[in-house]
Specification:
- Helices cover about 70% and strands about 0% of the residues.
- The chain is mostly helical.
- Helix 3 runs antiparallel to helix 4 (about 50-65), helix 4 runs antiparallel to helix 5 and helix 8 packs parallel to helix 10 (about 165-175).
- The two termini are about 45 Å apart.
């Protein structure tokens, strides 16, 4: 990952020179590293560039500066977001331990709630898909039983394992089946 440094030119400044000189104070994140007693916002920015070994201590200090519960929640949301992206290999439990938080505190954050809700939605969607696929497989199996007679357990398991597209193809093909032999030939062609 390429990091921008003060020594790198970030583009033409001439059109914006009057604004840069009067209204904008340029801050380089690397300049925040040696600084102490930063405002909460600058401390959050500093968290982006501190070495990984210091991240936990720095994050705890930011959270401990919160005066109210609302400020704590806001900062916790931002700290979590920074840690998740800065240290993607860490689990939620490891982040909780790093921040020295109770499990309930972390579970109440907006970030955690959004991730949890996203996971629930994905789970519901997957459950619907699996349920629909199971229903389609059962329907095809009932139709095959009527057309071809009782199927072996192996054939039933093979058909239940088919993806939706293959179940659909079998459902259409069984309309042309005249007996068990047609099914066996069709299944052999799919192996």
């Amino acid at each position: 990952m390429v990091q921008q440094r003060r020594s790198q030119q970030l583009g033409a400044e001439m059109p914006y020179a009057p604004l840069l000189d009067t209204w904008v104070q340029r801050i380089y994140l690397e300049d925040l590293l040696p600084m102490t007693n930063l405002s909460p916002n600058l401390a959050l920015l500093r968290l982006l560039v501190v070495p990984e070994a210091q991240v936990g201590e720095e994050a705890q200090a930011i959270l401990n500066q919160s005066g109210t519960g609302a400020a704590f929640e806001q900062r916790l949301d931002l700290v979590e977001a920074i840690l998740v992206y800065k240290l993607p290999q860490l689990s939620i439990e490891e982040i909780r331990q790093m921040l020295d938080l109770k499990d309930t505190t972390l579970r109440e954050t907006r970030f955690y709630q959004e991730v949890l809700e996203e996971g629930r939605q994905e789970g519901r969607q997957k459950g619907r898909q699996e349920g629909r696929q199971e229903g389609e497989a059962e329907l095809v199996l009932r139709q095959l039983t009527r057309r071809c007679g009782v199927l072996s357990a192996t054939q039933q398991a093979q058909i239940r394992a088919f993806p939706p597209a293959q179940l659909e193809a079998l459902g259409e093909a069984l309309l042309d089946f005249t007996g068990r032999l047609d099914l066996e030939v069709w299944l052999e062609q799919r192996d």
